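Entry type: protein chain
Record version: 2
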Amino acid sequence: MDVQVESRKVDRLPVALAAKARTMGGMRDEAYLCDISTHGCRIVTKSLYLSVGMRVTIKPEGMEAIGGVVRWVSEEGVGIQFDNPLYAPVVEHLCARHGR
């Protein structure tokens, strides 16, 4: 099992939500938010190159932008740890509305 998964504070929940991703260097791409928790998410982008330690901003459709740090990269997407945890009812609402 992936080390990052073992060390998670909160389990992530599956969602299917369009988002925009932006690096601090100004590179942007459409993204797809695949799962989320109060502390982080997994995204997939078409062409944005992200590496561990990069600072990014994720803007899920209908929400304010969320800052974070790339914690892992794999064929299945990119794991982002949020700078500030999301309010749990917000995550619950997203999962109820956009759950897979």
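Comment: The longest strand covers residues 13-23.
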